[in-house]
Each structure stands twice: as C-alpha cells, then as structure tokens.
Amino acid sequence: MEFIETPFSGLWIIKHNQLVDQRGYFSRTFCQNEFKQIDFNKKIVQINQSYNTEQGTIRGLHFQMPPFSEYKLIRCIQGSVFDVAVDLRKSSPTFLQYFSVELTSNNMLSILIPEGFAHGFQTLEANSILLYHHTEFYTPGYDTGIRYDDPRLQIAWPLHPKNISPRDLSHHFIEPNFNGL
Question: Any idea what DSSP says for residue 16?
Fold first, then answer.
C-alpha cells in the first residue's frame, strides 16, 4: 500500500498495489500494521456497501456527531464515483473546505476520512458500488448531514445532480454562525 498525504490533516488517499498473474490480481485493501505508518490505530467495527443504479446519483453529505464521530475508509469496487470530504473541524486550517478524488474500480484508490468530516459522493457511472469501513457503529440520533448543494461549500459536482434521497434533501445548509465540530 502507498499512503498519499493530502493538504487536509488526517485525510489520506491509499493506493493499493496489485500482485498480477495469469489469473488476474490480488490486492490487500486493509492491514492494521501498514496503517500504523500514518498513525491510524482505530478499530474497524462496521463495514457497509452501497449500490447505486443511476449515473449522477448523489449520496451525502453525511457524518456522525460526537461522541460517535468516525473514520471512514472508502473504496469503489464497481464503476466510478466523485468522492467528497468536507472538513468540519473548527480548529482546522481547511475548515469548511472540501477535498475530492475520483474513486474507480480500476484505479485502486481508497480514501481515509478522519473524524470531523462530512462525506458524500456522486456516481460517474451507473451500477457503482462502494465499500465503507467505519470505526464507529451507526448510532441513530447522532447521524446527520449537510446539503450537497450548500452555497458555502461550492462543491463542483461533475454531473447534474439527481436521484437524491428525501433524507439528503432535508439536510440544512451550514448555519452562518456554524463553529464546527
């Protein structure tokens, strides 16, 4: 694995190496010992998968409130997505800025999103599948989000947004006096 630092503290891109032979390839997607290189010592407690039928679908921007804030390790295992992480940490120099990366089933990239970030994505292909590893259990009442089209964030979604859930549409814009998490 290769860990690629981003301008956002604690946010990493992971490039997965492939061992290729006549059968195809083998790739390690997580190794606790290797993740110690970037001081990631959290325990993965939940793994989720999302399947998205339509190109242009947006999910997010989601996060859990303290004390159930979580790291997310995300990888696209079919299709491709424009993946977005928004820094909501009040003490961060990148507060209310976003980072984006294209995750595809071919580019062998994952993103490790630390606590204090909101996460969302837009499908660039129909039938895209994402795999999420979480360091906290889903905790009803602590899960929330912000609008994908919040004017303060100015996220440049590559496609016209569509197929957005009623729950995601019900999220509010960031309050003008929002001080972060």
Answer: P
